[in-house]
Amino acid sequence: MHIIQSESITVRAAQEADRASTTELIKAYIDQYGIPYPDEDQLQAMLSELFEDPSRGIHLIVRYDGVDAGFVSLYSAWNTIRAQPFLYLSNLFIDETYRRKGLGRALLQGSRQYMEENGYAFLEWSVNGDNEAALRLYEDEGALIVPRILYRMV
Q: Domain N-acetyltransferase: where (predicted)?
């Protein structure tokens, strides 16, 4: 399934055949934070679950000139107020070599298209306030800032 396709850019749902490149991209994403990788068995179990049941979540892969260059992680949840499912964008990553080529925009547009085609009420995410490139991209794409504070319990 191709969500977006142009001459040099393709956005599509990751499939089992993409396991190795998806794993490599996830590890490159983690590398930028300088933290250890999750347990390999856990990482592969997560991918298996998502490949088998995309209603729980999905990774979209962006390919640039034949190379898998980035991904976005979308996870399904429910909004109680609307009594509808929504998507949470957990990670958006473009390999450093391929940045500034419109790939982040393509992934965001692909995420919107996936949301609309699959009956989700909205797409929601958070971003570090100092990530100026991401903030500009999201604003350019018409995303609304929702005044909230993010909490995490571990």
A: 9-154
